Amino acid sequence: MYPEERQQEILRRARETGRVDVVVLAEALEVTTETIRRDLTVLERAGVLRRVHGGAIPVERLGFEPGLAVRDEVMTAEKERIAKAALAELPDDGSVIIDAGSTTGRLAQVLPADRELTVVVNSPPLASVLATRGNLTVIMLGGRVRGRTLATVDDWALRPLADLHVDVAFMATNGCSIANGLTTPDPAEAAIKRAMIAASERSVLLADHTKFGNTYFARFAALQEIDMVITDAGLDLTLAAELSAAGLEVVRA
Questions:
Q1: Are 252 and 240 within 8 A, CB to CB?
Q2: Helix (H) / strand (E) containing 243
Q3: 184 contacts: CB under 8 Å, gap ≥ 6
Q4: pTM for the full model?
Q5: What tens digit of pLDDT does each residue of 193-211 get?
Q6: How would you classify the pairing of strands 166-171 and 94-98?
Q7: Of 47, 91, 126, 215, which is most buried with the most CB atoms under 10 A?
Q8: Measured between alpha carbons, how far is 251 from 230 in angstroms, rounded to an integer?
Q9: 3 state SS of 56
Q10: How far apart are CA 97 and CA 89, in angstroms?
């Protein structure tokens, strides 16, 4: 079993039982406890598990939300592949929303310089990255800035979205599951995401494979409200088939 496969199995067991134990995992997966501890460290850095004495707990059980800087340092190669694959969904000219997030942030960095686009963002860091680009018209949604995600939320961000209609919304999420759709820990951020989807002709979810199978406090979309999922090759093929059966186009970059 490759390390990535073992880590996905550890994550699956954690979500199924609510907790995993180092010794039990080592015996079940036929590896050393040191290997399991390294796997738990990788999963904690990815923001999907939280280490506790003797094992780990899935973060959704704790309501834990890693900060943007932490999330930006994990799954970097996967996020870059997802962002490059998302370029195929850009309109030739027109308007897009880029949601606040570490994977969507990668898309902002690779937007082509030869395309005239209006880009709506709810993230001061993304606005700063994009504002110097001569081919882009950047609209920054105001409101309260959440320190953990650096996303603008609340009424001043929501009101402009009610009057906008864009070609594509590129969305981020904390969790995605067949049963519960797209979820995030914060209700204020969920409200912004919901309004972004409502303001768009098409919605494209950008999410690495660690986001799938977990559920957080606030739901902002059912799967049927999303047109496409762009993820990485680590997404379980069975889950990819289930997402396709739910009506989504699934791209594994």
A1: yes
A2: helix 237-245
A3: 173, 174, 175, 190, 193, 216, 217, 218, 220
A4: 0.77
A5: 999 999 999 999 999 988 8
A6: parallel
A7: 126
A8: 5
A9: strand
A10: 12
